[in-house]
């Protein structure tokens, strides 16, 4: 089974100058200034939520559709088409100044986005199982983060060029910018078609079967989930709720509080993904070699909390806090998600990971809307306190997980050497 990964931040490509232009002179909210679409922060953040809503359900059925209905090759192409269509509708919504159409586009984009990640993992397992699979997954995550970084730093420049071409700002400028950005979605579709051809050819030449996700989803398994697994779910939801929505609103935050230019704000806002790209494979190897997953998660959560506190209550150089956040985010992804496999039987892994991704998307959708409302009514200080509270809940869950694991004799915090030794003993006893 392909190892699940945290979903990418549901960041619409309109986090550009069009979004940063909503920054107003008041420190309380960006909603009092007209943006290209004339929406407040709460409605803007709803675009994140519309990406997450379909994945509350599709996390359970994406693997089933790939395994039993479409097959990996056709499934990848279909999900890529959903992404392309969603992006085009999203851009057309801006072009004709219809925000509801942009929301429809984000919903369709979300239908394809997360399921496409499942298909990608399935291809990786099919081609690399038994040889450098962990490295391949690390590279996949790195490429995703590089894409997010490029998006954050180049879309503002594209918007400026379109503005110079048209001679004015407004929804039409934003719409054309988003259509240009959609070229990457077409490139993704082209890659899906090429990959389907190569995989079909390999099936004929090498007698290779189509890849399978291996995800067996049985919702009745939920009632058998242990307390440790529920605590892992809480850690996941509360932690990512304080990362992805913050990055979505971060650009205007750095412009308002630290008086950064639009380009500087984009650069610092993307540093989390810049750090994650090279560090994710490194931390993956480190956690594999050392073990002690709970300790690594605890370090990541504490570092993230310190980062949010620094951003909320100090005027220290924000590069320090954002670099810390980038390191912590990379470390948590490598240490948290593998723990699921330690606390549930193999036949329940599909259900456990599906449920984890489902409630993560539900949490991100709700928190994104809440963050927009807080920013509109209370300002950035209250928003940062809100994010700090989310991380604090995650910290409480990590501490509880440590003690529950210790009292029940769980293996979540074993060293890699101890885990390997006991696995060998168990294997020898099975042979006897």
TrEMBL record:
The keyword Secreted does not apply. Belongs to the major facilitator superfamily. Homodimer. Interacts with lysosomal protein GLMP (via lumenal domain); the interaction starts while both proteins are still in the endoplasmic reticulum and is required for stabilization of MFSD1 in lysosomes but has no direct effect on its targeting to lysosomes or transporter activity. This is Lysosomal dipeptide transporter MFSD1. It comes from Gallus gallus. The chain crosses the membrane at residues 47-66, 78-101, 172-198, 227-247, 267-287, 294-313, 319-343, 355-375, 381-404. InterPro entries: MFS, MFS_dom, MFS_trans_sf, MFSD1. Residues 1-409 form the Major facilitator superfamily (MFS) profile domain. Keywords: Lysosome, Membrane, Transmembrane, Transmembrane helix, Transport. It is a multi-pass membrane protein. Lysosomal dipeptide uniporter that selectively exports lysine, arginine or histidine-containing dipeptides with a net positive charge from the lysosome lumen into the cytosol. Could play a role in a specific type of protein O-glycosylation indirectly regulating macrophages migration and tissue invasion. Also essential for liver homeostasis. It catalyses: L-alpha-aminoacyl-L-lysine(out) = L-alpha-aminoacyl-L-lysine(in); L-histidyl-glycine(out) = L-histidyl-glycine(in); L-arginyl-L-alpha-amino acid(out) = L-arginyl-L-alpha-amino acid(in); L-alanyl-L-lysine(out) = L-alanyl-L-lysine(in). CDD domains: MFS_MFSD1. GO terms for cellular component: lysosomal membrane. One of its GO terms (molecular function) is transmembrane transporter activity. It is found in: Lysosome membrane.
